[in-house]
Amino acid sequence: MQWETLFLRSQFDLMTSNQKYLSPQTSYRNFLSLLLLYPHLKAQGCFVFKPDFKRKKVSFPIADYFNEGKSLSEDSKLRFDTCQLLWQQMKSEAEELQEELNKNLFDNLIEFLGKSHLEFQKKSTNWNYQIKSREIPTAAIVLGVNVTDHDLTFKGLTEMLKDTVTPYVVSLQAKECPDVKHLLQKLASQLMGCVDIESTEEEYVQSSQRKMHYSMAFLSTWYRSITKKTGSESVNKKVTSSQWKESPPIVIILEDIESFSTKVLQDFIIISSQHLHELPIVLVFGIATSPIIIHRLLPQAVSSLCIELLQSLSCKEHLAKLLDKLLLTTRFPFKLNEKALQVLTNIFLYHDFSVQNFIKGLQLAVLEHFYSQPLSILCCDLPEAKRRIYSLSEDQCESIRRLPSFMRYVEKQIPEKQVALLTHERFLKEETLRFLEELHIYHENFFLVLRCFHAFVSSLPKYPLGRQIRELYCACLEKNIWESQEYEPILQLLRMLAKDELIAVLQKCVEVFKSSPGKQLGSMAEKLQEFLAQFQSLDESNEEENGSGSQQKGFQKTDLYHLQKSLLEMKELRSSNKKQTKFEVHRDRVVDLIDNLVRKFLSPPDTQTLYEVVYFTGAHMLREHLNAAPRIALHTALNNPYHYLKNQALKSEDDSIPNVAPDICIAYKLHLECSRLINLVDWSEAFATVVTAAEETDPNSTASEEIKEIIHARFIRAVSELELLGFIKPTKQKTDHVARLTWGGC
């Protein structure tokens, strides 16, 4: 058997030498497979010692990755720190908003829990309670189709319930509960984990290790033993409310109710209802679609549930509040241009409705902006930016001079000032400081006028500029809004607003401008209040006497058809030189005032000098990373492997196939030249021709036969990989052919 031992050792050496990129664990598994082929070698003294595969983990600071490539410069550390600080502030604001939006939902759930087991806590013997004792209190929470955000909501819900209501909170998912047995095992294991082991009796700890004994009777006995120890702080130390101390409920959260099996849910609910007098169970259903799904999944067991419907805030409203907190504010200097914001909102609206994914996309935009923009060190608070301006280096000053917005500004100046801006660094820094101050003031006025204008246009029929403020914001970022086709019809519709509608909109605008700390728009609230006083002082009786029939129509809420009809009547009325009423005069003055504000303060940000410092414009980068196209990426990798591998040997200027390319790439490029059906024999010969193109071997030699077998095996593996990727499939039309599935396939 000595030759077999040598053969075994040679095969193992061949595996480890030819497969350099395999892990040691993989080589070890290959060696074990050889032992299975030759089991008698173990008796000849061939032993395997598994080496220690512990490797030292080399950790690199995050800043080192940030400093790689084109971002390597003297201020890279400062840019990374600024980026990290800014994102931590934005992330904290988003988390506070999430808690604020969930507060109402959580409060309603706590109120429902308080009412659900009031009789259970009092040990009531009332007949009505005995009738309802088999109805499980169930809170059905409609969370929406943004399933990726549900985990965060349930995590916050679990923490809140454990802190305020009960330590016995269990969260179950459909993938963990294929049947009732596994569901009870998961339920019991999580309940056992809610209590310290030292506070439980030893027999229950031993029973928890034997999963086949988990049942509702076991849980009932366990719950009675736990609740008897009311003085034990280990169980109730997390609960802050005194009303839950004596018999805290057991809250079972089913996160994805649509994914659960109907049989599993019905059996579990029926079993739980039989022990409801011993276990104060409360179910919480997480619903992504509609509450009607409960009746479809549980046609029989729904009678055992006492359902309370709770509705969370819609994902669109959540996104609107998030944009208002993070982007439509001067608190954070970072901003997105129109295309970048449109990419993120399109992914949100047309893919997943996930607010968390939108936040991740925003985080990527922040990181890429600070990585690719050398002047992003000035994207910080205004006082800090003023301090950093005077410490700018010569290269950073040159970066400012190369900005397109700065070059446009220089071209409009007189020659003397142009020379000073291009040659004197101190003068350049002073002007840079002024530009940043003007940019900050521009944003303050922009967001105030934007909210005011949105209050007017959101009340118009068919919403010509969109219902959400983000739609109006994108339109203002793209171009001058007053040059759009919708602007003039909007002004005409605003001149037809009824008195009560106009007063309601003006009151909203007054609240917006009262929050303004600026000087330019600080007096705007007083002007609008004067208009409100004038409208409220108008005597309706006198207006009805002096006004015409068409004027009476102007005071009524109408639809778009009647508004257009009234516009035509007003045009005819004005053509007849009839005198306007006081209300019409004041209304026209308000519309003119809003028109002047829009033209003065809602110009696009690219009209401002140095806007590139705070605005991220890499929409194409976001689209490549977030809106992936796997088919294009796969075709590029197989058709041009140099694009990803960056190996000079794979680079080819013409459309030739290099023989050093990966086997699957050679087979893929050859299959692109074939028709709908591919002859495997011809394909194999073409593959062998490409692989052996640079080799000169004797076709009659023994070595040549071995090489052919190896090439044939490589071809079979490449074809199998293409079939796995879905490019080809076997066909019954011809046994030695395969069918193409892409780019002209069947």
Automatic annotation (TrEMBL):
It is found in: Nucleus. Residues 389-620 form the Origin recognition complex subunit 3 insertion domain. One of its GO terms (cellular component) is nuclear origin of replication recognition complex. GO terms for biological process: DNA replication initiation. It holds the Pfam family ORC3_ins. Residues 44-378 form the Origin recognition complex subunit 3 N-terminal domain. Keywords: DNA replication, DNA-binding, Nucleus, Phosphoprotein. Its main location: nucleus. GO terms for molecular function: DNA replication origin binding. Residues 631-743 form the Origin recognition complex subunit 3 winged helix C-terminal domain. Belongs to the ORC3 family. Component of ORC, a complex composed of at least 6 subunits: ORC1, ORC2, ORC3, ORC4, ORC5 and ORC6. ORC is regulated in a cell-cycle dependent manner. It is sequentially assembled at the exit from anaphase of mitosis and disassembled as cells enter S phase. Component of the origin recognition complex (ORC) that binds origins of replication. DNA-binding is ATP-dependent. The specific DNA sequences that define origins of replication have not been identified yet. ORC is required to assemble the pre-replication complex necessary to initiate DNA replication. Binds histone H3 and H4 trimethylation marks H3K9me3, H3K27me3 and H4K20me3. This is Origin recognition complex subunit 3.
